[in-house]
Design goal:
The relative contact order is 0.13. Helix 6 (188-198) packs parallel to helix 7 (230-247). Helices cover 45% and strands 22% of the residues. The chain is built from 10 helices and 12 strands. Helix 1 (17-25) links the parallel strand 1 and strand 2 (32-38).
Length: 321
């Protein structure tokens, strides 16, 4: 059996995806398969990937199905005991998968692991931390927890998480999906990490797993939120709200309700000062949430109904860190 299925998602990422694929196939000490999901690229990257990596399996969507659509298809086609979701702009160290497999086989309760992700600047690997294990603030923003020791966390970087396939199957059994296809992109990883914790799986940060990441290769590198395209802003805003609705147990909602409400009331003012046009995106996000409210509440009922009290207590403790 294959140890790790690496699902690499490509969408017009010719500047970075070839290096990403090469790092996936350069893994040592464990067996891997590379599944390249292409979201209808028009920049020649798919053709070049096929030429350079003929041993990879290619899944051609023919259109932009978003991160959630592409990764769901790749995950469904994976044959490995573990599944790694790799961004097109991310380079894996050659022992990334070996360390992930060792950690997860040592502890059967681990549903996901992830490592230290550093910035890739002008093609050079740096020691500047881009992502690591995280918790969530009272405003529902990720808070990085840089450390040199292994630790259980709320989540790990969505650019290169490694999952136990059984854990992903548990998520699908409860909600009907692994990644919520309605999210399309942005914030979908936080939703998955919270649902893993609620399902009784643990998420582990393993600092000796190293990777290097160029952020937002498909849009604007290192851009601020209000500088991102309008559609991206809408996805960010609506997906954050959807995750709160679906995944936060009632005890955590009551603990954080004042801060969450205050945050939503302050966002319009912030956007008005930074880029008034973004107020339209904020309103659009709320309209989409209202239209989707029935399905979100049904998913919440399914997720919360399958959650044990011990899982809520453990998640609550992680959120205090």
């Amino acid at each position: 059996m294959i140890d790790v299925s690496i699902v690499l998602l490509n969408w017009n990422s010719s500047a970075v995806v070839l290096d990403a694929a090469a790092s996936a196939l350069a893994q040592k000490g464990t067996s891997v398969e590379l599944l390249i999901v292409d979201n209808g690229s028009k920049d020649g990257s798919l053709e070049e990937l096929k030429r350079r990596f003929p041993d990879a399996r290619f899944l051609e969507m023919g259109f932009n199905s978003g991160f959630t659509g592409g990764m769901n298809v790749g995950t469904d086609e994976a044959h490995g005991e573990f599944v790694l979701w790799q961004n097109a702009d991310l380079i894996l160290s050659e022992d990334y998968c070996t360390r992930a497999v060792a950690a997860m086989r040592a502890e059967s309760a681990l549903g996901a692991v992830g490592g230290s992700v550093y910035l890739l600047i002008d093609g050079s690997r740096t020691s500047v931390v881009d992502a690591c294990g995280y918790t969530l603030s009272a405003t529902h923003r990720t808070v990085l927890l840089p450390t040199t020791r292994e630790m259980d966390v709320v989540g790990v970087s969505g650019s290169c998480p490694v999952f136990r396939r059984k854990a992903l199957e548990d998520l699908r059994a409860t909600a009907g999906y692994v990644l919520d296809p309605w999210y399309f992109t942005y914030g979908e990883d936080v939703d998955v990490m919270l649902r893993l914790n609620l399902a009784g799986w643990r998420v582990r940060f393993v600092p000796d797993m190293h990777a290097w990441h160029v952020r937002s290769a498909s849009t604007k590198p290192r851009s601020r939120f209000y500088e991102k395209p309008d559609a991206t802003q809408v996805h960010h805003l609506k997906n954050r709200l959807a995750t709160i609705i679906k995944t936060l147990p009632m005890s955590l909602i009551w603990r954080r309700i004042a801060t969450l409400v205050a945050t939503e009331l302050l966002i319009p003012g912030y956007l008005l000062l930074r880029r008034p046009r973004s107020l339209v995106n904020w309103a659009a996000a709320w309209c989409l949430i209202w239209k989707e409210r029935g399905r979100l509440l049904r998913d919440r009922a399914a997720i919360q109904g399958a959650t044990a009290g011990s899982s809520v207590a453990r998640l609550s403790a992680l959120l205090r860190k």
